[in-house]
Amino acid sequence: MTLIDQYLRMADLANHPARTAKTYIAKSGQQRTVTAKAATRGITGFSAKHIYHLINEGKFPAPVKIGRASLWRLSKINSWLASHAQPSDDNATTNAKEGV
Hints:
This protein is an alpha+beta fold. It has 4 helices and 5 strands. A 3-stranded antiparallel beta sheet has the order 1-5-4. β4 and β5 (69-73) form a beta hairpin. The longest helix has 12 residues, at 74-85.
């Protein structure tokens, strides 16, 4: 049995701020309302801009392009998060000795 890898979109990875509802009136007098959107927190806790900055520096997994969509493999994101979750023991020991 083989497992199929899941894919994530930027909306799943990045934080998105809250957006309040706004009403616009066109020149023709037609009224248009843009609904409110609650703030969401992505898996990484970073903004989309920061994620793309990390990709350009080679510090974050690059997306897989399918058509115009940018998708990230869940397995690569999980391994990236695991590698950045805890500081290495060597750095913690060195910092403790230096009094940092």
